[in-house]
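Class, look over these structure tokens:
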Amino acid sequence: MMKTKTSALAMMFSLGLGLVAHGALIAHYKLDEAVGSNTVEDAVANAGTATRAGVPILGESSVTAGTYGPIVVSAGTAASFGTAAELNNPSAGNYAITGNPSVINNLINESSGNGVGQMTVAAWINPDVITGTHVIAAAGTGSNGWKFAINSSKLRFTAFGVLDGTRSSTDLLTNTWQYVAMTYNNGSVEYFVNGVSQGTATVSGYKEETGADTKFGGRAGGTENFDGHMDEVKYFDTVLTAAEIQAAAIPEPSSSALLGLGALILILRRAK
């Protein structure tokens, strides 16, 4: 009985650490809504509702159990991913964050012609097409703002109207789930695939985004839409390390799961 109790305590401690490690998470779109929903919600409730442009297809299969570089998804963990969204360029469109996009827009601010601020953007993607340009996330329009996209099979950060950053070093794969991330630190960009660094870029001359054109799966104007499946879109207000990105790849346990584990420990304690 003591061994079982200790194991349960260790599990709860591990889950708790996971929640603490994700303390910088400011927006999280799980994309678990029902088929036909016009909107998807931010699980953190900061950036709020995202409204579809076009007809993204919800209720699609998500990440399966397996090994993705150093990221291991167990069968139990795979179930926690829920469902994914299919974004077929161009007809299935993208999602525009319409609730409170300033939460994301304010992460990078223009200062003396440079972008000052920190952020990490991450998502599970399973692209059908990697040729051309397909946006994972973007903020702004015209010559103001930024985008994080697939560009000719690699990852690229772009400051609109200013600079296409150096692309990542490794080609992405089609018809394969991959966890991609981009960190931004006062003009220094680093790319990650499955929690492993894939190179850096330097961006100067950033022009702050205007308006509320903050999207994932595409950019303002409906161009360069993502083509494939996407899930677990996350925005952080700090620069995550490789280890933190790997941890963020696994969905956090729900509060009900933690409460359930707490109840189990209480039962074990009383049974002692």
